[in-house]
Amino acid sequence: MILKIVKYPEQVLSQPGEPVTEFDAELRKLIADMFETTYASQGIGLAAPQVGVSKRVTVIDLSMGKEPKDKLVLINPEIISSEGKQYEEEGCLSFPEIHEKVVRAANVRIRAQDEKGKWFEMDAETLLSRCFQHEIDHLDGMLFIYRMSGLKRDLTLRRIRKMQREGSEEHTSELQSRQY
Fold this sequence. Notes:
Blueprint: H1 25-40, E1 45-47, E2 57-60, E3 72-83, E4 86-92, E5 95-104, E6 107-113, E7 119-125, H2 126-139, H3 150-166
Antiparallel strand pairs: 1-2, 2-3, 3-6, 4-5, 6-7
């Protein structure tokens, strides 16, 4: 089932998600629905708060559904190490039509649980590293606009308010870059 993506400034986006403690059929359904929603939205990642669920769950698929083996589920994830720096453009499904460059670590190592509750660690670089950081930020209540410089953030927030006044946040536009 395709879920409704919550848009900024909904409160759930600014709150840390609750840790997952039950690895049951309800969680598996949420994960399946989140993947379906991600693909329908032409995204590469989605965090549970983005669909109004305050849980520490995120799904990622850089192949956008083309390679089933590339599907990643991160439950209760945390970044355990990072190094380097990258400055690349990001988009976000909760911020339609907004694409801006932000600074992220070039490489990260994460620790998370899978859909059965088993802990694992994984290293990532470039796009996957950026996606991990973006989605884990969502689970921490941190939005990518707060990773922008102050001036860029102010300009972006003005643009968002203008789009909200005009009602354009409900319009589907052609995506300019991958969205998380």
